[in-house]
Design brief:
5-stranded antiparallel β-sheet; 6 helices; 2 domains; Jelly Rolls; 273 residues; alpha+beta
């Protein structure tokens, strides 16, 4: 999988935050004034994002999400689980966000821009990309999951990213590929090719829990071992449904969901040498 296909282009006040916010071990100190924009770009229109905050915004504020429509910026509908970056969470975008390319910081991509109606407090952003489940999902199964946080971190985001990578490897290693008919190009599936991460949310949550308790199993506690094994079995059962053509994927890399992609979502092919 090409690295450039896994990373977003992120700018705030001409500062390139792309690589630091892709790496979970990095973080950026940011204050977003009510006159600022965060620009987020990709090679095709985006549908969903995930923000991980080390230090959240304490000023009550609301995000405005805008797309470029070919001639101007216009507001689009979206669902912001972060409540203006007051907590970590998903942002789900309108299906037709970023309908045209434009150039930001000399980079031509499909861009959205985000702004707050009130200047934020000083924040620390750890991660801006996409995962398939979040902290609330873990709490639904393990109400005490917070007591297992890694040292110096108030989140299980590392395990959630590991879950994403494991699921993507399973999809790609199963012989399923994206296929661009116009160029006959075959390429691997990445997180931004999934139209609705809710299709994978349960499976991702179970694999994340497996990772958490598997790591704790180093203490030779049979309870942790049993939990890890139990959640891995739940993961396999949840993921099994997607081994056919149930998962809705952007097989033509256009960023918009065609009727064909809603029904036959994954193309399987053999590579000939």
């Amino acid at each position: 999988m090409k690295f450039k296909d896994k990373i977003l282009t992120i700018y705030h006040n001409s500062n390139d935050l792309s690589k630091s916010l892709y790496r979970v071990e990095g973080k950026e100190s940011v204050t977003i004034l009510d006159s600022d924009y965060i620009y987020i770009g990709y090679k095709k229109p985006l549908r969903q994002l995930y923000f991980e905050l080390d230090t959240a915004n304490t000023n009550t504020s609301i995000f405005t999400i805008e797309k470029y429509n070919g001639s101007s910026w216009e507001e689009v509908d979206g669902w912001d689980e972060t409540s203006g970056l007051s907590e970590s969470g998903f942002m789900f975008l309108d299906e037709y966000s970023s309908e045209a390319v434009t150039t930001i910081e000399s980079i031509e991509q499909y861009w959205i821009r985000l702004s707050l109606d009130v200047s934020s407090s000083a924040m620390e952003l750890r991660f801006l990309n996409l995962i398939f489940s979040n902290e609330d999902d873990l709490l639904n199964d393990e109400p005490d999951i917070k007591k297992y946080y890694p040292a110096d971190l108030d989140s299980h985001v590392f395990s959630m990213v590991a879950s994403r990578e494991y699921i993507l490897r399973k999809i790609n290693n199963s012989g399923k590929f994206k296929y661009k008919e116009s160029t006959e190009e075959i390429s691997q599936i990445n997180q931004f090719d999934i139209f609705d991460i809710n299709e994978l949310r349960e499976a991702s949550n179970y694999y994340t829990l497996y990772k958490i308790f598997s790591n704790l199993n180093d203490s030779n506690d049979d309870n942790y071992k049993g939990k890890a094994e139990g959640y891995f079995e739940k993961f396999k059962a949840s993921y099994k449904v997607f081994q056919g053509s149930m998962l809705s994927l952007d097989t033509d890399d256009s960023g918009t969901e065609s009727d064909a992609e809603k029904t036959v979502s994954i193309r399987t092919t053999k590579l000939r040498r």
